[in-house]
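Exercise 3.2. Students should predict the tertiary structure of the chain below and write it as structure tokens, then compare their answer with the key that follows.

Predict this chain's 3D structure.
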Amino acid sequence: MNRATRIGVVVVVVLLASSGCLARGPAVDLNTTDSVAFAGTSTGGSWAVGQVRTTIALTPNATTNGVNQLNVVVDGETFHRTALDSGETSASVVLPTNGTATLVAVNTVNGTVVETRTATVRSNRVV
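Answer key:
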């Protein structure tokens, strides 16, 4: 192994170690039964490092009925926040690669929580 290859391997290992984990085949489970805000989820890509970019499908009237922000809460702390515009039908959020997160649909105009749901992230952890 030449010097450039060794340096490349070290850089990859350091990046993986500092970002959480490398996961293969991430998927998100979200119960949307009787939901007023959440219609479903999808993930892009077959690999994730440290976090999973997830598209949250919204119900047809979610944003017109006041939902203008989605918060992702992990272990009681805000992990990610996304603002929504009226009429949006989906939003991109990030979730941790394994475990659970609480999705919170918020109306920031009047300061109310419209709905909360638990999302479970599954994947095959590689590192």
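Discussion points: The chain is about 15% helix and 55% strand. The two ends are 22 Å apart (CA to CA).
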